[in-house]
TrEMBL record, chain A:
Gene3D superfamilies: 2.30.30.30, NusG, N-terminal domain. Residues 230-321 form the NusG-like N-terminal domain. InterPro entries: KOW (IPR005824), KOW_Spt5_1 (IPR041973), KOW_Spt5_2 (IPR041975), KOW_Spt5_3 (IPR041976), KOW_Spt5_4 (IPR041977), KOW_Spt5_5 (IPR041978), KOW_Spt5_7 (IPR057934), KOWx_Spt5 (IPR057936). Belongs to the SPT5 family. SMART domains: KOW, NGN. Its main location: nucleus. Coiled coil: none annotated. It comes from Ostreococcus tauri (Marine green alga). GO terms for molecular function: mRNA binding; structural constituent of ribosome. PROSITE patterns: RIBOSOMAL_L24. Residues 1-163, 846-877 are annotated as: Disordered. The lineage of its organism: Eukaryota, Viridiplantae, Chlorophyta, Mamiellophyceae, Mamiellales. This is Transcription elongation factor SPT5. Keywords: Activator, Nucleus, Phosphoprotein, Repeat, Repressor, Transcription, Transcription regulation.
UniProtKB/TrEMBL annotation, chain B:
Belongs to the SPT4 family. Residues 24-101 form the Spt4/RpoE2 zinc finger domain. Residues 1-22 are annotated as: Disordered. Keywords: Nucleus, Transcription. The keyword Transcription applies. InterPro entries: RPABC4/Spt4 (IPR029040), Spt4 (IPR009287), Spt4/RpoE2_Znf (IPR022800), Spt4_sf (IPR038510). This is Transcription initiation Spt4-like. GO terms for biological process: regulation of DNA-templated transcription; transcription elongation-coupled chromatin remodeling.
């Protein structure tokens, strides 16, 4: 501020002095000008300091500011100039005046030229002058800028002779020009003409300023800070996106006003900033000036207030923060923003900043077919929706599609020879050279090695391994641009790659703050520390060293260097058992060889995690912030690996207490050894890591992929040391357990079985006595060794006690209490067993054995019939078992195994007599009671109901009953909602069990009514078929339909349709073979069905299901 | 003062870009914003030495589309603080860029002197 004031003062004073001098020295008496000057000087002193900007010596001040003094100034200035010109034209300039002129900015350039003429040191003098002037006022620049411009070059350096000579010549021409001008002036008699000429001249001069650097910027800019005298900035609200337009409109309006001769607007400028949306700045002294100026402008919100920008913020509001924009240069790696190449890596080979265009090299994605269509003039054929793969250009393919290829044309833009495909696509070395706008590319961070490899395929297309490595090395050189940000750490092994000590190895001792690296050479005769620049060094890892990857796709992976190819290391990851290549500089020594990224949040490698929806997966690889999960949707042959972020991992699952069944229905637990019997990993063995709904994640030895994890259905495995056929002691209980998925684990089972039966028996006899009830449970639980109480996981309702009415999931069981998680409240409680109700039991095959025998032995069955044996197989087994419980039967029972399972053997048994179904005679009194109760729920009748009732309900259901077995089903008068299907021979393991709808090799359809011993023959009742939705569907089976006897080879399972009745033909987790239900929906390979027996919904593989026929 | 001969005024204004945004370019020498066609037609009024007139190549060389912000300089000379601050005071009234990227690729010849 003071400086400005001083400047104004100096200027004015100088002017006054000069004018006085002129008058005195030139001896010219110009009374007019003298008066004027005097007045001006006075006036100037009265003027506010800040306004000095308006009175510029140059002309062209049109007075837009509308201030009177401004225009007056102009007139005065003009006259001064004229006066000076006249003076110069007439007389030689006196030396004394010249000396003063050096400090005087009002001296015209002609006078200055005289200065220069005098000696060669003119430029130097001027330099001095400039120094002073810089403090005076920037306006001065306008005055003498012309000469500055000419001398600019010389200003900062010593002049050598040549330059001096040039200067002298320059001066001569100027001199000559001046003489000419003088002549012109002399010819001019008319003042107006002179005035015009001056204007012209100054205008010219000002334009000539263009392009001149601002030498004194730093000093000037300080002085330019806004003062209270300067116009103010006003913030105006305009329509979003119309900022620039409004600004330009104001300019146009000014011109229009001027053209129409109307008074100009009283605003000085309008500014729009690209980053400031919805506002522009208008510079004016007063708000109403702004309002007036904005009148009639479309995009201005006139009703919104106009805000004054505080003086302190004025500079900020019109400054642009200079962003350090990374510029796309030749050789830089970019990514395409749009088009078919979107996201692709490209290398810039040419840039034209002026046109905002660049040419990039891309791995082509040429749609040959599309091009061919276009060539052939096929119209309307849309381009394939699929993005063509990035492949090097193939000439043969182009030929195959008959595409015109012009080879070896010299392209002027690249100064290189290119091939041109279809007249437009430029091809070079298999790459596509594409010219595109700079806006469509964006700078890429250094590409990763594998991306570079993909990029390099264009070059490697027909080279062998060695050459490919060469290409890689070339690539690494190309990437080497970022060597500056190489980070060395203490302890890094380095190789010196530049200078005299090339190929010397060493270890980084420390890194100095200035970036220099101090290296201890690993050479026995070099004991001194050496200092290098980072670019002189390269990380160096010997084969066999353990390293960690710092950047790129494999970031965080720890592995061993197995091979070194110049700058590229081949790493074998210890985690994923994969080999990959990384740049040396992306590696670091890994001291903690075992430490690696294998956790993501709370999840660790090989954890089982719940994903969205129904998906569950095992984490097979962990990267920086993503886990790769092998989900249960895949199979062993086609594993589905999903990359998921941490937040997609919903919860961790534990398989500790979960089991599955193998192909032989043996139980598989976590940690079991299994053998894969199907698929590409056939015969591979592994340890079960996780189990989820019949899906196993096995860590298989000798499997390389995915860290050895294989996801497979449990039925495609066999447990090692499986229990197939292990019928210890021939105990029927063992057999039964096996059938129901509880393999007897030890001979203790035989014992258990008997203790169990005796317990039950005791129960039966006790009839409500609770004391012995716990006994079988304990015996049972104790006997199981491992595994869990089947109650666990079930959802039950509490019948009495404090928690009466609550429903919860049982998480732990003791003899007398259970711990449950309540559904309604987030807590776990302990309740007595007898407080529990059994509203629904999850489809658990264990339910029969696990269920605490209720006090009223029959009552629960009647109430919840479904709980009792759910599958016919079991039901069949039960009856004799219970029968066997009667002491009378015991002796006969043991050697016979489960009669139900062996109907063939059973039939001839004389004791069968009237058949099991009617064997009520064996049933003790308790059973007799149940008969009445079972009546209303025929479906639940099973084995426990007296034969009379039972046979009536489902005569065919009891294959074991000789009488019922052959009884024609068609005679069944009672609708059976959940009738068990007919039984089948125990030794038949196939899928064509009675009730299954089959297609014969002849094409006819029917259903299996019975199975011969060992599945040797099948009775199939043939029905009529109708085509529905293009599929032949068995529609009716007449009662009198014939039956055919066929063999298994002639049969084929008919895949059940949605909503149809189905039968489980292969045991799976959740349902036993022979169980029936209704298919609710089909979800890919899985079918969702509701079991008739328990009304539970289970999900089974569709291969386990067959359509079921029933009348 | 108010009534000025329009001719005088007119001469000192540089027409603003006829199209906004995409087609407008800024002179690298003086930041003047005009359209490409305008540069071809009139050259750059401030930078006569760039000789942009009727020279497409020169225009694409010496002007750029990568500029940001626009200032409409409405008052001549240094009446405008914005003009002063941005060192536009010496240029004619017109639309200028606040900031631009790029530099004159080829060294610009010195002004040829007065015409």
């Amino acid at each position: 501020m003071t400086r400005v004031a001083h400047g104004a003062f100096t200027k004015n004073t100088a002017k006054a002095i000069r004018l006085a001098d002129e008058r005195a020295e030139d001896g010219e008496d110009d009374s007019d000008s003298g008066d004027d000057d005097g007045r001006e000087t006075d006036e100037r002193r009265d003027e506010p300091e800040g306004d000095d900007g308006e009175d510029d010596a140059a002309d062209n001040d049109d007075g837009e500011d509308g201030e009177d003094d401004g225009s007056e100034d102009e007139d005065e200035d003009l006259e001064n100039e004229l006066e000076e010109l006249r003076g110069n034209g007439g007389d030689e300039i006196v030396g004394e005046r010249k000396a003063r002129a050096k400090r005087n900015r009002y001296v015209d350039d002609v006078a200055d030229e005289d200065d220069d003429d005098e000696d060669d040191g003119g430029a130097k003098k001027k330099k001095k002058k400039r120094g002073v002037r810089g403090f005076i006022d920037d306006e001065a620049e306008a005055d003498d800028s012309e000469e500055d411009e000419e001398d600019e070059g010389e200003e900062d350096e010593q002049l050598d002779d040549e330059e001096r000579e040039a200067l002298r010549r320059d001066m001569d021409t100027r001199m000559h020009a001046r003489m000419e001008n003088q002549g012109a002036f002399e010819r001019m008699d008319n003042e107006e003409e002179i005035e015009r000429m001056i204007k012209e001249r100054y205008a010219q001069q000002r334009y000539a300023d263009a392009g001149r650097g601002q030498i004194d910027d730093s000093v000037d800019q300080q002085a330019l800070h806004p003062t209270v005298r300067d116009p103010k900035l006003w913030m105006v609200t305009v329509k979003l996106g119309k900022e620039r337009e409004t600004t330009v409109c104001l300019m146009q309006k000014m011109i229009n006003l001027a053209k129409q001769g109307k008074p100009p607007m009283q605003i000085f400028s309008a500014v729009c900033q690209d980053h400031l949306k919805g506002y522009i700045y208008v510079e004016a002294h007063r708000e109403d000036h702004v309002r007036k100026a904005l009148q009639g402008l479309r995009h201005v919100y006139h009703s919104k207030p106009i805000r004054l920008v505080p003086i302190k913020e004025m500079v900020d509001s019109i400054s642009v923060v200079q962003k350090e924009v990374a510029v796309v240069k030749v050789d830089s790696w970019v990514r395409m923003r749009t088009g078919v190449y979107k996201g692709d890596l490209a290398q810039v080979i040419d840039v034209n900043y002026a046109d905002n265009q660049c040419t990039v090299k891309l791995v082509p994605r040429i749609d040959y077919q599309h091009l061919a269509d276009k060539e052939a003039g096929v119209k309307g054929k849309p381009k394939s929706q699929v993005r063509p793969p990035a492949r090097p250009f193939s000439e043969s393919e182009a030929k195959r599609f008959n595409l015109p290829l012009e080879k070896g044309r010299l392209d002027r833009a690249f100064h290189d020879v290119v091939d041109i495909l279809c007249g437009t696509t430029k091809i070079k070395d298999g790459y596509h050279l594409k010219t595109c706008s700079l806006a469509t590319v964006k700078l890429s961070e250094t590409p990763t090695l594998d991306e570079l490899q993909r990029f390099a395929v264009g070059e490697d297309v027909d080279t062998e391994g060695g050459a490919a490595n060469g290409a890689l090395a070339a690539l690494s050189k190309a990437v080497g641009a970022r060597k500056t940000d190489l980070k060395f750490m203490t302890g890094d092994q380095v190789l010196i790659v530049e200078g005299d000590l090339r190929n010397l190895e060493g270890v980084v001792e420390r890194v100095d703050p200035d970036g220099r690296v101090v290296v201890m050479p690993s050479h026995k005769e070099l004991n001194e520390l050496l200092t290098f620049k980072p670019e002189q060094l390269r990380k160096h890892f010997k084969t066999g060293s353990t390293v960690r990857v710092l950047h790129g796709k494999h970031e965080g992976v720890v592995g061993m260097v197995v091979k070194v190819d110049r700058d590229v290391a081949h790493i074998f990851s210890t985690v994923s058992n994969e080999e990959f290549q990384v740049f040396m500089h992306d590696l670091a020594d890994s001291e903690e060889a075992t430490q690696r990224i294998d956790t993501i949040g709370e999840f660790a490698l090989h954890d089982l995690a719940m994903l969205d929806g129904n998906e569950v997966g095992c984490i097979v690889r962990v990267e920086k912030d993503v886990a790769f999960v092998m989900t249960n949707a895949g199979t062993s042959d086609r594993p589905e690996i999903k990359p998921v972020k941490l937040h997609d991992l919903k919860k961790k699952l534990f398989s500790r207490n979960i089991s599955a069944q193998d192909a032989h229905m043996d139980t598989i637990d976590q940690g079991s050894m299994v053998r894969i019997i199907d698929g590409k990993y056939k015969d591979a063995t592994g340890t079960v890591e996780h189990i989820y709904k019949g899906t196993l994640w096995i860590r298989a030895r000798h499997v390389q992929e995915h860290g050895g994890i294989v996801c497979i259905r449990s039925r495609n495995c066999v447990a090692h040391g499986g229990n197939k056929g292990s019928q210890i002691g021939g105990g029927v209980a063992a057999q039964m357990m096996s059938a129901s998925g509880l393999p007897p684990k030890s001979p203790a089972h035989a014992l258990l079985a008997s203790s169990f039966t005796s317990g039950l028996r005791g129960d039966l006899m006790a009839q409500g006595n609770q004391a012995p009830r716990a006994m079988p449970m304990r015996a049972f639980a104790g006997g199981r060794g491992r595994g869990r109480d089947p109650l666990i996981g079930q959802t039950k309702k509490i019948r009495s006690g404090v928690y009466k009415g609550y429903v919860g999931r049982i998480i732990d069981v003791t003899d007398s209490t259970v711990r449950m998680e309540l559904q309604a409240q987030a807590r776990t409680i302990t309740v007595n067993r007898e407080h529990l109700d059994v509203p629904q039991v999850a489809a658990s095959r264990d339910s029969f054995l696990s269920r605490p025998p209720p006090s009223g032995f029959d009552a629960p069955w009647a109430r919840t019939p479904a709980h009792y044996p759910q599958t016919p197989a079991r039901a069949g087994g039960m009856t004799p078992m219970h029968g066997a419980m009667t002491p009378a039967r015991e002796a006969a029972w043991n050697p016979q195994q489960t009669p139900a399972h062996m109907p063939s053997e059973w039939q001839p048994t004389s004791t069968a007599g009237t058949g099991w179904g009617s064997a009520t005679g064996y049933t003790p009194g308790g059973f007799g009671d149940s008969a009445a109760l079972a009546g209303p729920t025929p479906g639940a009748g099973y084995g426990v109901t007296p034969g009379a009732d039972y046979t009536g309900a489902t005569p065919g259901g009891y294959g074991i009953t000789p009488g019922g077995y052959d009884a024609p089903r068609v005679e069944d008068p009672v609708p059976v909602p959940a009738a068990p299907v007919a039984a089948w021979p125990e030794d038949y393991m196939g899928r064509f069990i009675p009730g299954v709808v089959v297609r014969l090799s002849s094409g006819a359809q029917g259903y299996v009514t019975s199975v011969g011993p060992g599945g040797s023959t099948f009775q199939v009742k043939i029905g009529t078929v109708r085509v529905r939705d293009g599929v032949e569907v068995l529609e009716t089976v007449p009662k009198t339909a014939q039956e055919e006897t066929v063999t298994e080879d002639e049969l084929e399972i008919v895949k059940p349709e949605n909503k149809s009745r189905v039968i489980v033909v292969t045991a799976a987790e959740g349902a036993n073979r022979g169980e029936t239900g209704r298919l609710i929906s089909i979800d890919g390979v899985d079918g969702v069905l509701r079991l008739d027996s328990s009304s539970d919904v289970v999900i089974l593989d569709m291969a386990c299901l067959a359509r079921r026929w029933h009348e | 003062m108010e009534a000025r001969p329009p001719a005088t005024v007119d001469a000192n204004f540089i027409s603003p870009p006829t199209h906004s945004d995409k087609r407008s370019r800024a002179c690298i020498g003086c930041k003047l914003v005009k359209t490409f066609d305008q540069f071809i037609e009139d050259g750059c009024e401030n930078c006569q030495h760039l000789a942009l007139k009727d020279d497409r190549e020169r225009v694409s060389e010496c002007t750029t589309t990568s500029y940001s912000g626009v200032v409409s300089l409405l008052s001549d000379e240094n009446a405008s603080w914005v003009g002063k601050w941005l060192h536009l005071g010496k240029y004619a009234c017109g639309c200028y860029a606040l900031q631009l990227q790029g530099s004159l690729i080829t060294p610009v010849d010195k002004p040829v002197g007065r015409t």
